[in-house]
Specification:
Length: about 240
């Protein structure tokens, strides 16, 4: 259970600190840039803390991509996803408990829990099509970076956690006003469970789009992989025979 516990802790940390930056600090205190770095830095910290144990997926879409890319078994994929979803829910629960400790009171319906969404009344009020396209493309980019940076024999593997975390920062800077940024079904599930209503009704998009983007990135990686040090260091792609 070492890997599953690591994935639980990692996803718990990502949701607690990332969504915590959005709800406790908020746009008025740290702004979009601060929230973006909170998610990215939490991921970087976990990458170096648990990466050696589980690979630090902390995201069902990343695990899905890893499975399609042939890096893990289907059983391990399922076990990872269960641990990640439980970690996301636990992180959201702890965050909600902290927020309820405000002496002035906390209105969950009004303030939210850092949940993802789209449409009228949500941040930049983007359409469903825009939200779907952003989450698909952003996850494709994110998983492409992850698979490339963690390729066995890659000369840049020691810096993988930093590269992956900074990619998540940039994705948040661009996408917070669109969907709040998911690229991670477990991150979306946690807050949605407690917020309910619209957050739960729109949850499907934050499962379908990231999984689709991750699948495309994994297929691309299998047929145009970074195959070892020479390819990783500029030798070009080497398609599998």
């Amino acid at each position: 259970m070492k890997k599953e516990i690591a994935e639980f802790i990692g996803t718990f940390t990502l949701v607690l600190l990332g969504c915590g930056a959005a709800t406790i600090a908020g746009a008025d205190v740290v702004g979009v840039l601060g929230i973006s770095f909170a998610f990215g830095l939490a991921l970087i910290a976990m990458a170096y803390a648990i990466g050696g144990v589980s690979g630090c997926h902390i995201n069902p879409a990343v695990s899905f991509g890893a499975w399609i890319a042939g890096r893990m078994s289907f059983i391990d994929f399922i076990r990872y996803v269960v641990a990640q979803c439980l970690g996301g829910i636990a992180g959201a629960f702890v965050l909600l408990t902290i927020l309820k400790g405000q002496m002035a009171g906390f209105d969950l319906a009004a303030s939210g829990l850092g949940q993802n969404g789209w449409g009228e009344g949500y941040l930049g009020e983007y359409t469903q099509d825009a939200a779907l396209l952003f989450e698909f493309v952003a996850t494709f980019i994110f998983v492409t970076v992850i698979l490339g940076a963690t390729e066995e024999g890659c000369c840049h593997s020691a810096m993988a956690g930093l590269a992956i975390g900074l990619t998540l920062v940039v994705i948040h800077i661009v996408g917070i006003q669109i969907t709040g940024v998911s690229v991670n079904p477990a991150r979306s599930l946690g807050p949605a469970v407690f917020v309910g209503d619209q957050a739960m009704n729109q949850l499907w998009l934050f499962i379908v789009a990231p999984m689709g983007g991750a699948a495309l990135a994994a297929v691309r990686h299998r047929y145009c992989p970074c195959s070892g040090t020479s390819a990783c260091c500029g030798g070009g792609c080497k398609s599998k025979k």
